[in-house]
Amino acid sequence: MTNREKMATDFKDVKLIFQKVGVRFFSIKGTCLGAIRNADFIEWNTNIDQAVFATPEEKSAIRKLLIEEGFVVDDLLDHITALRNTKVNIYRVLFDGHRFYVDNVSPIYFKKENLDTLVSATLGEQSCFTQESPIEHLVDLYGNDWATPKQK
After folding, report:
1. Distance CA 136, CA 111 (A)
2. For residue 15, is it left (φ>0), alpha (ψ between -120 and 50) or beta?
3. How far apart are CA 48 and CA 88, in angstroms?
4. How far is CA 49 from the centre of its chain?
5. Considering only CA atoms, which of 36, 34, 37 is closest in space to residue 4?
6. How many CB atoms are located within 10 Å of the residue 117 CB?
7. Element (H or E) spanning 128, and its range?
8. What is the distance, to the nearest Å, from the Cα of residue 104 to the centroid of all Cα atoms in its chain?
9. DSSP type of residue 54
10. How far is 27 from 108, CA to CA, in rounded Å?
11. Does pTM top 0.90 for this prediction?
């Protein structure tokens, strides 16, 4: 199984878990980059990054379902790392009183208006959601030349 096939399989199952729990979710970081730039997973990317609007109880339900699906789960305060075929990072979307963000260690901020409506993007043979203006997110993370592929 190729890296893309592994990522596609895990992404499909994670999406189904989010839908079962009933949480809104969207792709961030390299997963968003792949969807917007390539309409596919980035060949050399080694993980899937998703942000979820989840209460602590919903996060626990996600964790339980991931384990049932065969993922090995590391449950951190506001972040779940799940490993099966590939690594999946699931970040809870938090609000600090002024703006939305994910990841307390190295925060990524989002404008509220960009999260009001999530938009669909192609990711391989599947679809994913991104924030309404994903290019702002990509410029913030990767700079103005975000569209130029760079293998690490």
Report:
1. 10
2. alpha
3. 5
4. 3
5. 34
6. 9
7. strand 126-130
8. 16
9. -
10. 13
11. yes
83-142: per-residue pLDDT in tens? 999 999 999 999 988 889 998 678 999 999 999 999 999 999 999 999 999 999 999 999
Lookup: tokens for 129: 């959601």
pLDDT digits (tens, 9 = 90+) for 28-57: 999 999 999 999 999 888 899 999 999 999
Helix pair angle (56-68, 3-21), 10° resolution: 130
By the 8 A CB rule, do 12 and 126 touch?
A: yes
State the sign of the Cα–Cα–Cα–Cα dihedral 125, 128, 133, 135. negative
- How far CA 126 is from CA of 9, 10, 75, 135, in Å, comes to 10, 12, 27, 20
In the block, tokens 């190295």 appear at 106
User: Which DSSP symbol is given to 68?
Assistant: H
End-to-end Cα spacing for the chain: 22
Tokens of residue 26, six digits: 């969207």
Alpha-carbon torsion, ordered 142, 148, 151, 152, to 10 deg: -30
Write down the H helix ranges in 35-121. 56-68, 112-116
